[in-house]
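Hey L., structure's done. Input below.
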Amino acid sequence: MVNPHGNCKHLSEDAVHFLDYIRTGTAEDDFTKTIDNAVLKARNHQEWRIEYMNWCAYEMDHKIEKRHAWEDGRQIGLEEGREKERKILQMNQRLLKENRFDDLKRASYDDAFRERLMAELFQEEMPSDEVLSSHAKK
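Output:
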């Protein structure tokens, strides 16, 4: 990486002129004038301009698509989180109603236990093949 604003004490005169050109855009010697002419020629090359514009449009579209995908993923995650929270609240209410205070307490800190409890309490809501697989795991 080049820092055109850095200390130029140990650089050749050509290198100093080049860094000045990068910093200011002003060509001061033959070398930087050659570079400046090449830059102007490239900027004025119609085919390259169109290609550059197309590339910029593609990049912008890609960033927009990426942003939409991120927002969609975030929304899905929020919905999944709300659904899980709703299930946990239902489980807590049911455990309280059934006076299963020890299970409620353990479910508050033991994730695996909480998942087993939820499977036990809500298995009637699961499709039949999931119920069968949950019994096989026990």
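The chain has a mean pLDDT of 85. Residues 46-97 form the longest helix (52 residues).

-- N.
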